Amino acid sequence: MSKIKIAKCRICNANDVEYITKPSFSCNECLPYWNRADSIWSNKRRADVFFIHRVHFARHIKELYDKDKTCKYSGFMLYKLNIDGTLPIEQWIYDLFKFSVERYDSDKPYVPGNTILCANVFNLMKNNTEKDNFIRLVINLLEHQYSVGDENTKYRIEAFSEKVIQLKEEKRGKLTEAEMEKLITDNLPDE
Ligand SMILES: [Zn+2]
Questions:
Q1: Tens place of pLDDT for every residue, the chain, 191 residues?
Q2: What does the radius of gyration of the chain's CA atoms come to, in whole angstroms?
Q3: Same domain for 117 and 50
Q4: Which of 10, 22, 46, 183 has its CA 20 to 30 A from that of 28?
Q5: What span, in angstroms and rounded, lies between the C-alpha atoms of 146 and 149?
């Protein structure tokens, strides 16, 4: 029988990695970071990754996740697989909100400072075919809000979409958060 040896995980440098001939770089806990780093690193069509080794890239991803488990764009909570490889939440929610490693400025490479974590759904939005699915999801969400929501919710959705449609096309995509908030609050029914 082959003897099982033990090495330290190269990413967290804390957990043990059991091996027989050659240790893997990552423990089970760090595997999601390692997999993301490795797939970006190996994808030739992707932007440059300015880290010395895939291990350093994975370490940086772990650092980012340990520091802040929310989406940089939306503030949504980000999910990662459990240590035993099982899902932390229902599959469809996981698919939308699993952490995705992105560049803040897409003209710049993956470097510390330009590497961010966001919900996978924003990745999907970048791709045209999948964008349709995303829009469908949003429509489903609004429809559901409509069917179960109170009159106030219904009124908000109608008033907001009406106002947005009235806006000139060039203005629509450039609404700031404050302007959107104003559109919503200005159209609330009187208490
Ligand atoms: Zn580890």
A1: 678 999 999 999 999 999 999 999 999 999 999 999 999 999 866 668 999 999 999 999 999 999 999 988 777 899 999 999 999 999 988 998 999 998 888 788 999 999 999 989 877 766 555 656 667 777 777 777 777 767 777 777 777 777 777 777 667 667 777 777 777 676 665 55
A2: 22
A3: yes
A4: 46
A5: 5
Report the separation in Å between the CA atom of 87 and the middle of ligand 1, taken as the mean of its atom positions.
18
* Token code pair at residue 73: 């764009």
Whether 99 is covered by a domain: the verdict is yes
* Domain extent at residue 82: 28-125
Cα 169 to Cα 191: distance, rounded to the nearest angstrom: 32
* Gap between the Cα atoms of 165 and 179, Å rounded: 14
Q: What CA–CA distance (Å, rounded) separates 86 from 53?
A: 28
Asked whether the beta carbons of 10 and 34 are under 8 A apart, the reply is no
Residues 53 and 89 in one domain: yes
What does the longest C-alpha to C-alpha distance in the chain come to? Answer: 78
Q: Same structural domain for residues 88 and 142?
A: no
Q: Match 């240590």 to its residue by tokens.
A: 83
Ligand 1 geometric centre to CA of 71 (Å)? 22
